Amino acid sequence: MLPSGFEGSGPVFATALPVVDRPSPNHGPRVGGDAVEMVLLHYTDMESMAAAADRLTDPAAEVSAHYLVDEDGTIHRLVPEGRRAWHAGHACWGGLRDVNSRSIGIEIVNPGHSCGYRPFPAVQMDAVTALCIDIVVRHGIDPRAVLGHSDVAPQRKRDPGELFDWAALAAAGLGLWPRHGFDPEAAAAHAPAMAPGMAGPAVLDLQFALDGIGYEVEGNGLYDPSLAAVVTAFQRHFRPALCDGTADPETLGLVYEILAVAQGPRPPMPAGPRDLTGTAGGA
Ligand SMILES: [Zn+2]
Question: Is there a catalytic annotation at residue 185?
């Protein structure tokens, strides 16, 4: 049975996790079928949970996500998983441009860089992790395809940002992450550092590597502001201590390590606490 407010909105791929339903009218049909290939993480970038919930359910705002996770770990369900929520905007990953049609969007309550960015509480991270595992397993998504908004829209977006605990997700078997024991400094010992303003074959190599991971990068051999934005997005995700858009040796080492992970064998499905009875419930 469909949750109240979700009637007539197509098949629901329902989670068995405890959720609070707060239906948003802001969704449409997935274009090109129901397949979900990606989980996309955001922060709300607003002062409060209430303000974010109001905006994500306001028809005039024309934005939404499938889920909204409060700082206390409460998961709010806004849009049925079978529908196309409006969270990614102009975005691209691995050549895929209609990210909304192929993804499930999770908004994570945090004031963001606009309103007083702060760490994500452990209880909130636990809820996000459990929800991601649940979605990845039910939809059969490649566990590496849990990404941030800044990964798919590096020229425009900073969320969920450098305070998001990607390492915690990786510990649960989710997302792209360096292999155990990887030493980025040793890996990049012979790599020349590159900075905005440079040009040449080494810059082109970096562009190809970032493209191979999935980022949208122009292959022009120029370390222009566009490439610096992509490097900054990479750093927010994989080297949050310094996000300056400069391809220093540690960043370069990580780029080639993540490239190897991204193009390597698909990892096993994450294990985790879940109690699921099937796939496509409802309808
Ligand atoms: Zn976002």
Answer: no
Please report which helix (H) or strand (E) contains residue 136, including its range: helix 122-139
What was the pLDDT predicted at 273?
54
- Give burial (CB, 10 Å; 0-12/13-18/19+) of 97: middle
Centroid of ligand 1 to alpha carbon of 187 (angstroms) = 32
For the cut 70, the answer to whether the pLDDT of residue 276 exceeds it is no
Q: Which domains does the chain have, with CATH numbers?
A: 11-171 (3.40.80.10), 184-262 (1.10.101.10)
Q: What is the DSSP letter of 79?
A: S
Ranges of beta strands (E only) in the chain are: 20-21, 27-29, 38-43, 67-69, 75-77, 83-85, 103-108, 146-148
pLDDT score of 9 more than 70: no
Radius of gyration of the chain (CA): 19
| Single-letter amino acid code for the residue at 75 | I
pLDDT (tens digit per residue) in 150-161:
999 999 999 999
pTM above 0.85, yes or no: yes
Which one from 7, 71, 107, 162 is the annotated catalytic residue?
107
